[in-house]
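for the writeup, i need someone to sanity check this before i put it in the appendix. the sequnce is what the collaborator sent (i think, or maybe the updated version? ugh). structure was predicted straight from it, no edits. if anything looks off just tell me and ill rerun, i have time this weekend
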Amino acid sequence: MPDTNFSPRITATRDQIIAATRCEIDAKGILGLRVQDVAERAHVSVPLIYKYFGDRDGLLSEVLVTMFDQFVKAQVDTARVMFNALTEPTVKDLFPIFRVPNDAARSSARWANLQTMAASIDNPGLRMKLGEVQIETINYLAVFLDEVQIRLTGQINTSSRELALFIRAYAFGFALNDLLTEQGQPVDTDLYVNLMLDLFERAVVPQK
C-alpha cells in the first residue's frame, strides 16, 4: 500500500515525482512511461515511488486524474470569462465559447485526456478516480451553466447538469478531430460547431 502520511517533506517529494511523471508523459505518452525514467528525472529511487504511489498504475492514476481535472476546469473558467464579457448573450453564443483553440498546448492536453480514458480500461483504480473526477467536473461545469441559465432566462428548457454532459461530449469531438487531423482528414471545425449548435437548439431550446 502507498504511504499516505503526507508530511511537508513527503508532499514536496510527491510533487517532484508528479512533475517528473507529467514531463515523461508529455515526452513519451502513457504507454511509454517507465517508472525508472520518472525516478531518474525526479532524482529519487524507484522504491520511493512505489512507497508513495503503490505501483505504476497508482502513479498514473494520481497524475492523469489531476491533469484531466485541471484541463477541464481551465476550459470552464475560460468560457465563464468569455460569456461574462458579453453584454447581451444568447444561446448561439454558448457553443463558440467552448470551442477549444487548436494550438499545440491544447492539442497535447486533449491527447493526454484521450490516453487517460484509454488507460483506464485496464486500470481499475484509474477508472474509479476518473469517474469521481467526471462527476466533479460535470458539477463544476453545471455551476457555470446555472449562471448562464439565469442570464438566458427562458432560452433553455433542460437542466444545467444535462447541458453540462452535452457540452462535455461536444468538447470531446475536438479531441477526436485531432486524430483525424494527424491523418490528414480533419473535419472543418466551423461546420462542427454549427452542427452541434443546431442539434442543441433542436433538442433543448423552447420552440416558438
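The chain has a mean pLDDT of 85. The longest helix spans residues 56-84.
thx in advance!!
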